[in-house]
């Protein structure tokens, strides 16, 4: 399978290395308006062709798919362009600036007969996958409560300086992943409330958010995120999870242990990842999840089925982000939009 990577920036490097580690797939071209970036990628990863513009790339290369790792404001135009050229699409999160824009992209891709999948990798982290697997396997019975928590003081602005300038920061950039984990565990959300704060005075957007969600299945979950929490050791980029179910409870802790409590007692499972040989701590669990997501996408593409994080599925995650900002702004409970 032949693909092209659109965007040669900070996160694209993980995607490139992950593609190179997977059998039967080749990144035949890259594209970035910044010559130094595209030339570095072309050289470092032995890519055949490099372009300044996606239009030129799509006109000249015969491809099966594009992998969009460019900044969010470019996603819409790149998705439409790729759909016009009849290639399948993977797009980084958040794939559109609003649920309405997302809906029009999903419909456009459907009209053009191409698949749209979203690079939503956090639910593919090994420890998170293990929690999801045990919940779906009914090991704790029907869940009635969850807390999905992401709190650290890591300097994310160093590698991603645009985050410090974003008016919408932690919910749109990071909370989107944590909300997606909540959906993967408990299903879609009927209503939510949210409060936010900005603790770091040097950034524009919110760096702390606390949400309460009521899921369709009756479970309540708390999703909380912070980039203003000083801890030693710093748990970045781990997501910690507590779930209580009718038959037992699960606790995913920062030492990569998963505790399964039932009436019979407690089992402890190590949920450490086997790191890709190119991984760069502390990013290891995220980098492994990039490989896992891309492997899942390839498997689905080969089987002709939708990826778990299709555009349609991710619409409902994006709608939670929008609802969270509305709830925080109006200090009220909001019923999120959903794909129908
Ligand atoms: P970045 O700014 O480091 O890289 C983006 C690159 O895209 C730059 O090199 C830029 O020159 C290039 N670019 C700009 N316009 C383009 C266009 N029209 N066509 C092709 N390339 C273009 O940003 P980043 O931190 O790598 O983030 C990129 C995307 O990845 C964002 O959507 C971000 O939210 C997402 N991201 C996801 C994760 C994750 O874990 N899933 C982590 C970090 C970033
Ligand atoms: O951009 C973010 C993401 O998607 O995962 C972590 C991150 O890199 C910083 O918040």
TrEMBL record:
InterPro entries documented for this protein: Gfo/Idh/MocA-like_OxRdtase_N, Gfo/Idh/MocA_oxidoreduct, GFO_IDH_MocA-like_dom, NAD(P)-bd_dom_sf
Pfam family, any one: GFO_IDH_MocA_C3
Domain GFO/IDH/MocA-like oxidoreductase as annotated: residue spans: 129-251
GO MF annotation, one: nucleotide binding
Sequence ranges assigned to domain Gfo/Idh/MocA-like oxidoreductase N-terminal in this UniProt record: 4-118
Span of the signal peptide: none
Full protein name: Putative dehydrogenase
Organism: Kushneria indalinina DSM 14324
């Amino acid at each position: 399978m032949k693909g092209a990577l659109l965007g040669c920036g900070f996160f694209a490097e993980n995607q490139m290395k992950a593609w190179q580690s997977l059998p039967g797939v080749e990144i035949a071209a890259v594209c970035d308006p910044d010559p130094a970036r595209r030339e570095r990628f072309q050289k470092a990863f032995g890519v055949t062709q490099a372009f300044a513009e996606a239009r030129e790339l799509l006109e000249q290369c015969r491809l099966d798919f594009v992998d969009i790792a460019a900044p969010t404001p470019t996603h819409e135009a790149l998705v439409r362009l790729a759909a016009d050229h009849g290639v399948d699409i993977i797009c980084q999160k958040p794939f559109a600036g609003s649920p309405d824009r997302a809906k029009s992209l999903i419909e456009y891709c459907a009209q053009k007969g191409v698949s749209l999948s979203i690079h939503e990798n956090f639910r593919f982290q090994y420890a998170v996958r293990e929690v999801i697997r045990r919940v779906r396997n009914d090991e704790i019975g029907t869940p009635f409560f969850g807390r999905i928590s992401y709190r650290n003081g890591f300097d994310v602005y160093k590698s991603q300086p645009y985050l410090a300038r974003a008016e919408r920061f932690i919910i749109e950039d990071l909370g989107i992943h944590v909300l997606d984990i909540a959906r993967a565990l408990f299903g879609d959300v009927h209503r939510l409330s949210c409060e936010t704060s900005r603790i770091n005075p040097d950034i524009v957007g919110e760096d702390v958010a606390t949400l309460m969600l009521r899921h369709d299945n009756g479970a309540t979950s708390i999703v909380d995120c912070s980039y203003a929490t000083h801890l030693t050791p710093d748990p970045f980029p781990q997501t910690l999870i507590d779930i209580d179910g009718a038959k037992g409870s699960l606790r995913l802790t920062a030492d990569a242990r998963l505790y399964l409590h039932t009436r019979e007692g407690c089992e402890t499972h190590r949920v450490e990842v086997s790191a890709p040989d190119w991984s760069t701590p502390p990013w290891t669990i995220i980098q492994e999840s990039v490989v896992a997501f891309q492997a899942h996408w390839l498997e689905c593409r080969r089987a002709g089925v939708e990826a778990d994080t299709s555009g349609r599925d991710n619409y409902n995650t994006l709608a939670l982000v929008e609802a969270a900002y509305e709830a925080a702004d109006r200090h009220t409970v909001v019923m999120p939009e959903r794909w129908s």
